[in-house]
Amino acid sequence: MDNVIRITSPRDERVFIRVKHGHFITATTHINYYVGTSDIKHNHGVSIDTAMLLAEYYNTRGIEADTVLSLYETQTLGAYLAHELARPTMMSPNPNPNLYSLGAEYDSQGKLIFRDNLQRMIRDKRVIVLMSCITSGATVEKAIESVNYYGGTVVGISAAFSAARVIRGIEVNSIFTEEDLPGYEVYDPKNCPLCRQGVPVDAIANGYGYSQL
To answer: What angle do CA 54, 179, 187 make, to 5 degrees?
Structure first.
């Protein structure tokens, strides 16, 4: 994909996203920017630095967690985040040393499920939901519902990028926001101005990446 812009975090120049302006569709929205987080998810060094930034939010606020639930290929980042949250710091000298790091599994209808051997890592646990990129927040809302169904409680939401600031009353802990993308917009698919203007769709995007059309 051409004309990709790299945006770095002012808190750590080693943490970055790659964005492209255009017309993209997700499962629930149309957006005018594609936000690429492949390096954050798959580059060892970038993932570690990203996890450190995300962990600061919980350490400085005294938010304790038992499990990091990673959605859409963020398992590596989730493991690093769990490691950082379990590590004693000045702000959090006595953290939970036994944090769980779980990947997501979905049934044929797209609902998040936990196998019998993993339910103990959710039930009665304080859970952080982790995604690489949040647009409308619909995916996170479904994850929260699933965690509640299995008896857990979501105490935090983290993402590399998020256009949503609060989901289900929980503040989103993100490194990048729509303020980093001038003119960023999320549209209802039934009322997308780009579609009305006849602007062709550049790609279909989801938590795994994009597929050009």
So the answer is: 105
